[in-house]
Amino acid sequence: MRVSVPLIAVVLAIFAAMQIGSMFVPAYIMPPLSQTFGALGHVLTVDWPSIGMTIVRVLGALVCASICGTALGCLMGMNGTLRPYLNSSLVIDTGIPALSWMLVAVFWFKNPEARIFFVLFVILLPFYAMNVYDGIKALPKDWLEAINVFRPTRWQVFALLILPHIVPYILMTTKSIVGYATRMVVFAELIGATIGIGAKMGLAEATFRMPEVLAWTLILVVINIASQAGVGAIEKRLMHWRPEASLA
User: Fold this and answer.
1) Rounded Cα gap, residues 44 and 46, in angstroms
2) What would the pLDDT profile of 173-224 be if each residue is shown by its tens digit?
3) CA 31, CA 38: separation in Å to the nearest integer?
4) CB distance 79 to 198 below 8 Å
5) b/e map 81-111, b = 16+ CB within 10 Å
6) How many other C-beta atoms are found inside a 10 Å radius of the C-beta of residue 2?
7) Calpha distance 239→248 (Å, rounded)
8) Which domain range does residue 164 map to?
């Protein structure tokens, strides 16, 4: 309740500002809410496949990036020989702008789906790898010394100590970048796709249909809120054993 009431209040304030603004500027700058909601109904009725396609693209990239990034972060944390090279590769990756990756993908891949997946994957991978690596570095040495008393194998150390310890870092990373991933996939769809929210927003902009642009924006906001809530529910389920601290 403490979350939903402020959220509803902010949404109502934004809607009120949009309606008031529409009274003083032309409709192509800020259309009335009636036109925006009318376009929203049309989009949900006719263009719902584009919504599903965007969600599938985001989920696919997040799953693959989380798996590969977690494996890479664990390798960095457990292999001192490869660590400097992998870390340098991630630093270079994060220094390459998203636009550069998109332009490279256009030359490298013929299939639009491969282009979008590649761009999302290379952008999201370093987030998981670096955060998982930081999680392993934050592992208390006392825990490692305690488990070494039982002479475990490296796999047992990973399964019983490291993996449970990095789960919060994986969830935290997902919660932090799910909105960013959604924005990136929309950007990629705008450049190189014919179906998806980004492609439909580009078409609406090219034909001067401002209500549709705002309708798609509202859909993206709802998708982001739902994604955050879903990750939060998973985190609460997996981390139910951990008490939450409250300073308020």
Assistant:
1) 6
2) 998 888 889 888 988 888 877 888 988 998 888 888 899 999 999 999 999 8
3) 11
4) no
5) eeeeebeeebeeeeeeebeebbeebeeebee
6) 6
7) 21
8) 48-237
* Tokens representing residue 213 in the block: 């642009």
Number of domain units in the chain: 1
The CA distance from 56 to 116, in Å, is: 12
Instruction: Extract the tokens encoding 173.
Output: 């990373």
Q: What is the number of residues in the chain? A: 248
Owner of token pair 């642009």: 213
pLDDT at 128: 94
HSE of 195, CA atoms in CB hemisphere, 13 A: 13
Distance CA 134, CA 228 (A): 23
In a domain, 9, yes or no: no
Full-model pTM: 0.83
Residue 129 lies in a domain: yes
Distance in angstroms (rounded) separating the CA atoms of residues 192 and 195: 9
Please give the Cα distance from 248 to 106 (Å, whole number).
Answer: 50
Which tokens hold the place of 97?
């702008």
- The CATH number of whichever domain residue 227 belongs to comes to 1.10.3720.10
Q: List the Cα angle 96/184/50 in 5-degree steps.
A: 150
Here the tokens at position 44 are: 């949900």
Number of H helices, E strands in the chain: 11, 0
Would residue 40 count as lying in a domain? no
Q: Tell me, what's the pLDDT at 248?
A: 55
More confident residue, 236 or 116: 116
- Is residue 198 within 8 A of residue 188, CB to CB? The reply is yes
Q: Is residue 22 part of a domain?
A: no
Output the six-digit token pair for 195: 């179906």
Amino acid at 108: W
